[in-house]
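Fold it.
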Amino acid sequence: MKRLTGFMGLVLLVTTIVGTLTYSQSTYTKAENQMIEFANKKMEQIYSVKIDKNNLRYSIGEQVQKNKLKKIQDKSNSEVVAITATNLEKLKKGNVLSYSFKYDFKDKKVISHDLKFLK
């Protein structure tokens, strides 16, 4: 279990770094913006927290193979979607630092989720 948690943390870190380096608000497609809204809502429900979309930077992709993601073009065609979010601006006690979220739209279920906040 510790190995899995460590591995998930590493994947989150790498994805966040890559996503942050290529970040630009205008680069999100309509489908990606819909996915961000969906993931934020689900994470708010699961963890009973308030997520401010504007304070987070996102990395989003459709899983096409075990370790391979592609850019989301159309939400309706996506099966498994992975999203990571990182807060790089407002680091205050109680704020969400980062989260990872993976959802299967075909089976309509959450595959995995993790949230970190500043204590």
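Residues 2-117 form one domain.
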